[in-house]
User: What shape does this take?
Amino acid sequence: QKEVEQNSGPLSVPEGAIASLNCTYSDRGSQSFFWYRQYSGKSPELIMFIYSNGDKEDGRFTAQLNKASQYVSLLIRDSQPSDSATYLCAVLGSGGSNYKLTFGKGTLLTVNP
Amino acid sequence: GAVVSQHPSWVICKSGTSVKIECRSLDFQATTMFWYRQFPKQSLMLMATSNEGSKATYEQGVEKDKFLINHASLTLSTLTVTSAHPEDSSFYICSARVGGPVAEQFFGPGTRLTVL
Assistant: This one.
């Protein structure tokens, strides 16, 4: 059973702070990792993906991957109230998975003005 | 990013009727589309994987005779909920996979189904 674990939160940070979202996965063969943002009542929106160890930055967002620890994180710098949403970590299964994503249950982030 | 549309965005139907939901990739060809279901305050649950021109692959516990999937072209997949019941009420979301090794999935806006 391939699993993706996230802290369900809620995570509350003040406006302007750094929000740190964490995710661990069980399938050691996983190669690609995705962060999606989902506003209440809406479908997920892709923020970024990462497949190499280390950091990947895109604007205020930084994804970090450590395959040895089976850990991926998302940092949001200068958090804004509009960042308040549920953040879903998704992992692409290894070999023969037909490109299926396994999602974590999501972390609810609240950014307080 | 790539654009995926879904129609309808919401539907209310009576118990026992069938409902068809369309999923289209608007600016790219999607060899693979996925159908998810999401109940309130829960994560996405994959229902089935749909490949153009072949039968869908259903996840364990999903009734293939109840949730009919047709992937007629590289830009269109449909999900038909047959003989819908109130417990089928949910948020149904499709996604389409962009080709390449990373295989990002882009999601449609979702269809909220309410069965009375």
Notes: Chain B touches chain A at residues 1, 32, 34, 42-44, 46, 49, 51, 57, 93, 97, 101-110 (CB under 8 Å). Chain B has a mean pLDDT of 91. The longest strand of chain B covers residues 90-97. The CA atoms of residues 39 and 90 of chain B lie 5 Å apart.
